[in-house]
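lol ok so funny story. i was supposed to be doing the assay writeup but got distracted and ended up predicting the structure for this chain instead. priorities right. anyway since i did it might as well share w the group, maybe its usefull for someone
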Amino acid sequence: MDMRQLKHFVAVAERGNMVGAAKMVHVTQSTLSKSVAALEERLGVRLFNRGPRGVTPTAYGEKLLTHAKLILSQARRTEEDIRALVDGTGGHVRIGFGANFAGFMLPQAILKVISGRPGITVSIISKPFDELLPMLREGDLDLAVVVFPPEQAQPGLTYEPLIVSEFCTVCRPSHPLAGKRRIELPELARQAWVLFDRPKAMQILFATVFLDHDLQPPQPVIATSSVFFLKSALMQGDYLSFIPPGLVYEEIRAGSLVKLPTEIPAIKTTAGIVCRTDDVLPAAASDVVDELRAMRTSVGGRGLATHVLKAI
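and the output, tada:
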């Protein structure tokens, strides 16, 4: 397939009309129509349903759109890698980040790579994994550092664990419960909580702990997907939160937040690297992955995972 035809096809699919797509790729509407028609003839299928309000991809078009975006992304990355080798720059890395306890590792790994190859530039896209997944599949991301979903691994992706962590209860040092030797579930159920509103599976596990002891699960005073907001609320008010300690690694080390000894059973989750199974990472992205692996090893054997999981 012709790369130019694929670019034209993607533009039409994304804009939903020929006029906007033609402007997007800087060609005439006639040229664009001929290009899409030639692609349909080559494949022997109709790629768009045409209507008075524009065009929408057919089932064949939807399938091609997924592959076309990935092909164009890989072509762009290949060109960037070769150009980086020619002119001595370091290339560009696109990393998806889902707030997780491996988060303290990622900045260190990136800064280490940049210090050795100053020409590298990095884009960090912070979203929940279910929103990062299509970006990863379509080639808009080189890799993602996320908490692995509790459900079955997605086909075509490689999951490489970095660290396994137990969720813990945290609060500010001046909280009335701070300093207690053991805090029972009934007392925890009466407290004001700030909790993440996703992933849903973790919310269910947290609630189940109380339900299993015939207690009404605490309803969070604040539910948020923002790590920044959660940390700020914990440090400014008498709230509890149930989170991976790596999310508040620096705050616990500095003493601005503390872990509480509670009766909540250990809930373990795994965070790590996710990338496309059959993909060859650009050199700059590969350097970041190598640094993350080195950090995993240097942290020590405290429950760290070292195997690679592939979903085929």
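Confidence is low (pLDDT under 50) at residues 300-312. The chain has eleven helices and 13 strands.
back to the writeup now i swear
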